[in-house]
Amino acid sequence: MFSYGHAGTPITEISEHLLRSDNVIASTWLHCVDCHEEINRCRDLQTCVIQCIGASDCTTAMCLQNRFIDRHPRRTCGGKIDQITQFEVVPKVVIFAVDNASVKVSKKIHFLEDEKHVVFGLKGVIYTGDFHFTSRVFSIGVV
């Protein structure tokens, strides 16, 4: 399924395949700020791999926030439209794919689930390039 050698397979593709769920993890819809009409985009996520492609000079937490609430990316029905993505179930693991070295890795990321705070702590980093990778895993109190 995954090629190797000079063809290679990006680690994000492997991660998406390994962490794919049979259930919807997150859904995306458009919300009109003025008339409050909502339209489901039918772009449901079944993986907890978040692509931060094109992000720069921000943190992974900011990238996630921008991905889940995109304020006024377009206008329709004469009003401002927000694109909102929301977890149906907060996954146990979230993976970020970042393509820009200016994006800083957040050590903690917070979610609100049923009015309860869920905190993700950084557990590892994988640096990739030229068909090689370096990984670093963090355990409690040890880097």
The proportion of residues in beta strands is 35-45%
Would you tell me the structural class of the helices and strands?
mainly beta
Largest sheet: 4 strands, antiparallel
CATH topology: Cathepsin B, Chain A
Q: What is the β-strand count?
A: 10
What is the assembly state of the chains in this entry? single chain
The general outline is globular
Number of domains: 1
List the secondary-structure elements in sequence, H or E: HEEEHEEEEEEE
What is the CATH homologous superfamily assignment? Cysteine proteinases
Q: Taking all residues together, what is the mean pLDDT?
A: 78
Q: What is the radius of gyration?
A: 17 Å
Q: From the coordinates shown, what is the CATH architecture? A: Alpha-Beta Complex
As a percent range, the share of helical residues equals 10-25%
User: Roughly how many Å apart are the termini?
Assistant: 33 Å
What top-tier CATH class fits best?
Alpha Beta
Separate helix tally: 2
Lateral strand order in the biggest sheet: 2-1-5-4
Given as residue ranges, the uncertain stretches (5+ residues, pLDDT < 50) are: none
